[in-house]
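QUALITY CONTROL LOG
STEP: pairwise intake check
CHECKER ROLE: data steward
CRITERIA: each record must contain a sequence immediately followed by its structure tokens, with no blank fields

ENTRY 1 OF 2
RESULT FIELD BELOW
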Amino acid sequence: MSDISFHDLSTLDADGRASLLRRAEADLSAFVEKARPIIEAVRTEGDAALLRFAREFDKADVADGGLKVSEAEVDAAFDKVEKDVVESIRFGIENIRHFHEEQRPETMWLKEIRPGAYAGDRYTPIASVALYVPRGKGAFPSVTMMTSVPAVIAGVPQIAIVTPPTSDGSVDAATLVAARLAGVETVYKCGGAQAVAAVAYGTETVKPAVKIVGPGSPWVVAAKSLLSSVINTGLPAGPSEAIIFADDSVDGGLAALDLLIEAEHGPDSSAYLVTHSRKVAEAALAALPQHWSRMSEQRVEFSRAVLTGMRGGIVLTASLEDSYRFINDYAPEHLEILSKEPFAHLGHITEAAEILMGPHTPVTLANFVLGPNAVLPTSRWARTYGPLSVTDFVKRSSVGYVTSAAYPELAQHARRLARYEGFSSHENAVSEIRSRYLSV
């Protein structure tokens, strides 16, 4: 397969190496300019703009059924989805719930910092959140599962899903099943930049939210960037990306099999096999045609576009250390460590949002049923962000309580520092003036 991108890292200069790190959303300027009037139209026209954009972008007329999914539509979805698929959605939600319940912080803690002086944290759910579920290149009930479960566990009182309608004006049935099983009843039929604007500003039908989470296309990412001062846009989650790291203990055919998992999401995805073993690299190349023969035509088209372009293919390194260095520079959304001894490599890798260990832990399991959240930071944001979690749906308040016995010592030191920094009101508040009030 000579058309597969093959990058020999040892032969690349700094610019060549840097080009391998670029993602599809690296330059959003074109999307930003096109998203700007869409956002303004939703802000000023409300539902009318959402209905128009549904016709224009999604080829869907949702005027008759309404922008909000009805309870009857959700009921009907259970009849449209095969029972074994519903069972698997239940199974996945159960595992995701078990995992995220362990993340839930205690409501409040206080520690005695000094005798009689207490400080701690208090956690309360955010008031409202919108969960973005993409639809353009497929149906993703798994995204509904991953975003809904932690929001419900966190206790967010107002949760709504926004997702693009299909051409008949409906919403993917499995997505509706997943929403109800996860505990979310409100679903709006809108997607893209217009959906982000709708939940940021609110419309006649769509209630505004204080935060939006979930992966999306460059249109969604662009809209989030434009509206970041209006709504909390959460962790940066753009087009899919993965690195399959393989040492010489595994078959290259297995590495090729897993390389296609995220590559099939769409032509804007990124997917690399990183290995120091030429034998593994060559075996992976040889296996790809066979794997493609078992995939749908559309997914072959998507993954081939990725693996023959500059955001995918095979990266051959000179050593394990070079592989570790490239992975950490790339900071992938998904990372598989394909090795019979995966824990031997784990300590060398610090920059990855998700790390899946060993040949029995493909990305597929993590995307659907393993439990950890599959909404992950992309475009090297794994350097500062982690996966979506319950803590993304709560806010933290610091709590302090000082007793009368502890106050004098703290006040003395605070007064000195306030005086040094030139804040006279700060100083006065812990001076003899306060003491006179307290003595009354």
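ENTRY 2 OF 2
RESULT FIELD BELOW
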Amino acid sequence: MLIGICGGIGSGKSVVSRVLRQMGMTVYDCDAEARRIMNSDPGIKCRIRDEISADVTDGESAPDRKLLADIVFSNEEARKRLNAIVHGAVRSDLEEKRRPLMWVEAAILAESGIADMCDEIWSVESPPDIRIRRIVARDKIAPHMALKRIASQAAEERMLRKFDKIVKVVHNDEFHSILAQVENLLKDIDIAAR
């Protein structure tokens, strides 16, 4: 069984993943694995140089993540090109590491094609003001840039609607316990499959 963990930037997907890991569950972090692949795969680095910007990487060194983020969060075409470069490599890596019961955390679960692989999806949701505060604090950017990053993922939210039948919501705000919600969701899963 593969369970997706999704939610927009600043929603708190990583908090849910951390809780699961502390419970002994296996969670594949698409962002971390994409970063590893971008830093180590010569073909990926060259494609980023050629298709995104030579300022981001010379094709040999690891991409400058901050500059890359600035480019793709302000240019929809560049974002789509980067996603096209990285998604296939991440899906292949996930298939190689797949276990009988596993979670996969991804900001763009539907757009990457990983949602199609999932049996269930946990959507982490937070109010916009909380998300903006988290992004500003974590990434050291201005609130208007945080809003731009949130807006860049609007298409993902629309794409996820086709998976409504397998989506379960996890509220990450000041009123709900993440741990209690995760424990309740786990009751519906055959943990023996682990």
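INTAKE CHECK: passed for both entries
DESCRIPTIVE NOTE, ENTRY 2: The first strand starts at residue 2 and ends at 6.
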